[in-house]
């Protein structure tokens, strides 16, 4: 009913708007007054955490994209090797697992069969499983050794939005906590990031306040057949997520690529007026990456692409090559997906609406996939 949707036309719109609160709720009570992480709820001792020598993240769909981003964060802040794998592929290739492997299973519903089978396989090999889940008491957390709940609240729309942002928050928390527990050389950086994370919900809100031009752009592209998405570093999984949203909702051919792969094939797809969304990393910090992506934008634009550039406020280098410029607030590199994903959700939702599609219940899809 309209009341359930809180005055929005679709649950998806309501859930996109709820993201600042979902992010804040997922952080609540987990950062103490001294800016340190409190995750005693994990029930894994610091001694056990110091034993971990490999982390494997398993998940499907959007949760898998959160896992890809987790890998960057985990390896950077903990120096523990981390793999991320589609849950549906995992157990069929006889993965190497032992009691020192920590498996992280990410699932909004907690009922996804592929993810459940992957975690059962991991536990049979003696690995510990930590679930990141949004649904209290669902099967995946019940069958795991530990659980970190995301507090997005119920997500009704089939296309995942607020659950994704809170999965990212949970992954950052786990990575930072492991880094904190193991005392890596990034101690100071970890402190700064915890502080930035505690303020990020306000930045998500700021992004939501500036979405009208994105909706307008989406409507203008309603007759297109294809949209490509490019990103690098954590912007790569963001590109994949943007493409997945567009497939699910707008039923359009949408593909995400690592920008560095362009020259290895995908650049052949570029033709006159093809919309290409580019997620640009911060020009601060890893500026080498930034410069490389700016030249990618130049290259595709020279071949006729219509460039839709998502870039940090104050990034002037992209301006000459952006047919459409979507600004996002400056964040630490690894946290950028929390703000960069939001315009892509809005874009897909509006495009779907413009094409007359059912936003909350896309064809052929179910909210939770309980078959393998
Ligand atoms: C995302 O928009 C999807 N509908 C889908 O990819 C989903 O993320 C996936 O099926 C995993 O679901 P889960 O998080 O409930 O395990």
List the defining traits of the structure above:
alpha/beta; cytoplasm; five-stranded parallel beta sheet; binds 2-deoxy-2-amino glucitol-6-phosphate; repeat; Glutamine--fructose-6-phosphate aminotransferase [isomerizing]; glutamine amidotransferase
Question: What does this entry look like structurally?
Answer:
- Catalyzes the first step in hexosamine metabolism, converting fructose-6P into glucosamine-6P using glutamine as a nitrogen source.
- The active site is at 367 (for fru-6p isomerization activity).
- This protein has 372 residues and is an alpha/beta fold.
- It is built from 14 helices and ten strands.
- It has a five-stranded parallel sheet with strand order 2-1-3-4-5, sandwiched between helices. A five-stranded parallel sheet has the order 7-6-8-9-10, sandwiched between helices.
- Strand 1 (54-59), helix 4 and strand 2 (82-86) form a beta-alpha-beta unit.
- 53% of the residues are buried.
- The mean pLDDT is 94.
- 2-deoxy-2-amino glucitol-6-phosphate is lined by residues 60-63, 107-109, 112, 115, 158-160, 248, 368-369.
């Amino acid at each position: 009913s309209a009341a359930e949707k809180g005055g929005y036309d679709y649950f998806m719109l309501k859930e996109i708007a709820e993201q600042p609160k979902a992010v804040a709720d997922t952080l609540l009570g987990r950062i103490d007054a001294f800016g340190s992480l409190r995750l005693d709820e994990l029930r894994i001792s610091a001694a056990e955490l110091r034993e971990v020598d490999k982390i494997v993240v398993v998940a499907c769909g959007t949760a898998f994209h959160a896992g890809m981003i987790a890998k960057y964060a985990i390896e950077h802040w903990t120096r523990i090797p981390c793999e991320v794998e589609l849950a549906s592929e995992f157990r069929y290739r006889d993965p190497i697992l032992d009691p020192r492997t920590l498996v992280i299973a990410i699932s909004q519903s907690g009922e996804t069969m592929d993810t459940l089978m992957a975690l059962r396989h991991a536990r049979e090999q003696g690995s510990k499983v930590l679930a990141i889940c949004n649904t209290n008491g669902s099967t995946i957390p019940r069958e795991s050794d530990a659980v970190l709940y995301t507090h997005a609240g119920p997500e009704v729309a089939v296309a995942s939005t607020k659950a994704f942002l809170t999965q990212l928050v949970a992954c950052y928390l786990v990575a930072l906590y492991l880094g904190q527990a193991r005392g890596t050389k990034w101690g100071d950086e970890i402190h700064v990031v915890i502080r930035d994370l505690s303020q990020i919900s306000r930045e998500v809100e700021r992004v939501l306040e500036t979405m009208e031009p994105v909706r307008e752009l989406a409507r203008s592209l309603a007759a297109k057949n294809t949209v490509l998405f490019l990103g690098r570093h954590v912007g790569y999984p963001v590109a994949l997520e943007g493409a997945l949203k567009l497939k699910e909702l707008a039923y359009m051919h949408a593909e995400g690529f690592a920008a560095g792969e362009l020259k290895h094939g995908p650049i052949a797809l570029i033709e006159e007026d093809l919309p290409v969304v580019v997620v640009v990393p911060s020009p601060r910090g890893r500026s080498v990456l930034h410069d490389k992506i700016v030249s990618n934008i130049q290259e595709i634009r020279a071949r006729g692409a219509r460039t839709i550039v998502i870039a940090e406020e104050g990034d002037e280098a992209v301006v000459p090559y952006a047919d459409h410029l979507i600004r996002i607030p400056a964040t630490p590199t690894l946290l950028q997906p929390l703000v960069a994903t939001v315009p892509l959700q809005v874009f897909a939702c509006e495009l779907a609406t413009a094409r007359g599609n059912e936003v909350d219940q896309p064809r052929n899809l179910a909210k939770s996939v309980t078959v393998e």
